[in-house]
Structures are given as C-alpha cells and as structure tokens.
Sequence to fold (265 residues):
Amino acid sequence: MLSNQKIAIIGCGNLGASIANGLLKKADFDPKNLILTKRQTASLADFAAQGVQVHSDNIQAAKEADLVILGVKPYNISPILNEIKPGLDSSKIIISLATGVSLAEMYGVLSDDAVAFRAMPNIAADIQESVTCICSNNASSEQVNTVSHLFDAIGFTIPIEENLMEAATVLGACGIAYVLRFMRAMIQGGIQIGFDSVTASKIVNQTVKGAAELMIQKNMHPEAAIDKVTTPKGCTIVGLNEMEHQGFSSAMVRGVIASYDKIAK
Fold:
C-alpha cells in the first residue's frame, strides 16, 4: 500500500528521522517517495544520499505528498499549517505528531473537508519497533487503514479515541525514556556487584528484551511471570521487596501521572 504513496515529513527532527529510518528499512519502500524538510538540511545529508528528497520548502513538500506528517513542536503546528495550506487539498492526509495539539485546533486552520490525524509513535520507529496510537477526524475507513499501514511499517498501530492521546503519549513516547532510565539503573547496579559496563549492558539489554517478548508472546500479566521467579526465601523476592520499600512502583506511577499532568494542563 505504501509503495504508491508519497510521504512528506515536515520539520524532520529526531522523531521524524526515526520514522524515516523505519520506512527506509522496508524492502518495498522507494526512497524517492519520501520527502523530508528542515530549516537547516545538513543533518539530513545521510537521507539525501539514500535517494530521499531533502529540502526546506514546506509548501512544495505538501503539494507533492499524499500523506503530510508534521514533525514540528506543538507551538509550530498552526504556523506550519498556515504556511502549507496553499499546498493542501481534500485528497491529502495530514498527520500531526505534536503533543497536546487537538484536532479541533488543527481544524481552526484547515478547511472543514480536510482529513486530519494525530499520531504518537516513539523513537523505536528507527528499528521498526514503535507502538503508534492514532486518532482522526473526517477520515474514511480506507484512510484510517492507509495511516495504520504507514505506522505499521515502523512497528504496530493502535487506533484510540482522541481523549486518550495524551495518555498514549505518556505510556508510549515518554514511557520509552522511563524504561531506558530503569535499564541504566540496572546497569549501574550490575557494575557495583562486579560486572564491567559492557557486559552489564549486554545482560540488561537482553533481560529487558526477553521480559517484553515473554509478555507479548505468552500474553501474560507481569505478576504471573514474576511468580515464576520468586521462590520462597529466594534472592529475587528479597530484591523486589527492597525496591518496593524504597518506593519503586509508587515512583513509577507518580512519574507517569506527573508527565500526564504536564501535558493535560
């Protein structure tokens, strides 16, 4: 489906570049169908070398594309929409990656017959392992399938109601940073008990990957898997209980809520 679609990523920063990398790893995706824009294009030179169209003309990118992804900061969504509006028509799909900018705010600039989506992937798009939550307005089932197929190319997609988009941002996008901070702490602990940093990293990386795959493939609740490794008077339960005494789960929940409150204000 994507092989015939031209995709523009306007304001191609870190997240946009991750999406671009994920798309380019698809065997059937033609780099010539990808357009990346940025004010300063030097950082996109590697994409240009792969045959991707790279320039700073947002209006031209919007004119040429079938799907227009806005990878700009939230405060730039309205200005960018106003800028590219001359290049938009009702056949194009506009997708905002911006946190906290509602579809209603986008339609404050767009025409009523425009097709707009919000999407929240994460940086694992770079390796085609993102989870992307999407919501839309004015979209047909075919257009929803098109956008889902786009983000399935970089992981998998979950359609949700718009009132959950901020929560999706916290769990899916902020959440990857929470997991990485947890991994860093595990590596630090591994170094303290005797491993060098490289070996500790390898062990932790595979352990976290294995835990995630176990949940996915076995469709298990985390506590069910925890029960399998917490033997009576064993070292695992001692470690878990000490973490809980120090507020591990509480700190995680409070962090999730704090991030959500920051977006929802």
